[in-house]
Amino acid sequence: MTVGELPLAVRRPRRIDPRWLRLGGWLVLGALLCVMTSTEEGTPSDHWLVVRTALGSTKLIGWLLAGAIVWALLEVWRARGLGTVVSGRTAGVRGRWHEITGGRRAHWLFLGIAAVAAIVIPQFLSEFYQRVLVDQVAVFVLLAVGLNVVVGWAGLLDLGYVAFFAIGAYTAGYFTRALPVKPPFHLNPFVILPVAVVVCLVAGLLLGAPTLRLRGDYLAIVTLGFHEIVQLFLVNKNNWTGGNQGAFGIPHFSINIFGIHYQWTLASLPYWYLFIAMLAVLVFLFDRLEHSKVGRSWTAIREDEVAAAANGVPTVKYKLMAFAIGASTSGLSGVLYASRIGYINPASFPVVLSITVLSYVIFGGMGSLVGVIVGAALLTFLPAVFQEQNIVRQEDIPMWIGAILVVMMIFRSQGLIPSRRRRRELGLAAQGVSDADAMSETPEGRA
Amino acid sequence: MATPQAREEALLTVRKVTLRFGGLTSLSEVDLSLYRGEIRSVIGPNGAGKTSLFNCLTGVYTPQEGTIEFITADGTPTQLVSGPPRRRRSRKPHVVNRAGIARTFQNIRLFAALSAFENVKIAAETRQRTGPIGAMLRLPHARANERRSDARTRELLDFVGLRQVADELASSLPYGVQRRLEIARALATDPALLLLDEPAAGTNPTEKRQLEGLIRRINTDLGVTVLLIEHDMKLVMSVADRVTVLNFGRVIAEGRPEEVQRDPVVVEAYLGSTEEKP
After folding, report:
1. Which of A129, A192, A246, B254 is within CB 3.0–4.6 Å of A125 for a Cys-Cys bond?
2. What is the model's pTM?
3. Structure ipTM
């Protein structure tokens, strides 16, 4: 008796061979890439021009063919079980690689190589890339390292992070007499650094104290609101902040002590070294923090807040600590940024920037210092390369960066270089054992 | 069996504690006096309010009525619930822990992605005063604290017999081992009172025997008072000095195990009003 003869049984739809579905997927991807790489531009009266011309051109055939070839290769790979063969063959090599890279000495060797590369390589880059390194890469790497403390280690979703960056920058503006409201004394940007750290620490505590009882998405909304408040304050409090005009003429860093005189100027390289030095100090301190009582307590809170509290971890205190440390890092980079650029206005600190930094952290691998540094550096340097080398059209760069993020999250959601703890958590969450992040909980955690 | 001290000294006194969730009364005028050095077991059918009682003691829930008094290590009585009606607050869970009450959970709540060692160490260092600056600069006192908590962690892993799995992930350990690890983590906070919520649930007979020995050693060797929720009557009868029976949120009997076992009210609660058998 077949299914058709059963009067009451629901006939199951005919299953399509998954291989053909995969072929379909690759062909659609080919067509999509054909549209994305099109240089045609739509007009307000004709939004579909790009799609029509792209899909009508002969290039489409090439893209579809490429999709089909990739599909065929992957099917052969799958049918022959080449994946297991390759992983079996390379097991020895990979094992040794892990042995070498996992060691303490390799750790220092890598650090040394990275430091030398960071010092030497920029010397040989063009002025354009040097500027990108300072204005984009260095600033965002610093920001990402700070946000990593909040999001990656303490598991708090903070969407108002760049507000502290703005506070740091405006602190620099205030103490260098660039704002309409004048301080009683004038400070060198170097002296402002610790001042801004303290200011942002206090701002972080003020925002955190009433709100950190919240969790996950609730906290995210509160921090988002905080960013908006800071932004509106900067725009509207004209006689203090200069309103939309912002502040001009924030002086560069300078050293004038013990007979040493040095003045940072518009040149990029000196600023690059200043940023790198700051980053080195922060990485050194944060690395120790991660592997200390504080870092372990953050992990405990992130994994199970109730169990952590039951074992004596003061959860609110540690969350506040993470929030404040993140905020002060953000403020620190704010001072560096303000002094480097020389002028600031509210438009320099849009809400979307907070989300951008968050995406860098997630892309690089939440909770992993190396990961977020590489992630942020890559995602800020790549657009510049695209732009300079004319790989894709100028206006299309955000689209390609977005595509990279999407692909990354689908195929490697743990990020580029995930931390060991975080990778385990994601693995466990996939099996339904525990939560990977703070985003699936009630406002005040579960009992 | 550890006998209570001759001069029975109360460590924890629960008076007329009532806990309601909306219209549902979970605990109703519960009285409980726990003496220093005893092993007390709380039994009762499912839903009798045993875990709710634990949650009241540890600051997870705030009971609407009643008082909970705990004698801290320095001998001062501390109220765990305070404040005027309607604005009553329990001490926060971490404060209760610092006062000297540690607990385990009915559904194991280890830090799954951390190693057994790290799980215990986190608890061992909560009383230390290392702050972020000390940790970042690795100041001498921070390093000394690290050494101390490492030593304490090793000691406790030895105590529960888990030294050889110290570096394993907590989630990869067998169920019974996870239970023991959770006990080690609770002990790492140096409690005077240990609350165990169904530690034998889901363990096999061998593990139950080990657990029985472990609870005795915690009581005698470490001098920790134990309050134990357990469904396994054999374990309760052999290890507990005294038993308190809860049913529908009320204390219906209290006494030595063999007395309670014969008490008609208890037999009624277990056989009459529910399907559960002891």
Report:
1. A129
2. 0.86
3. 0.89
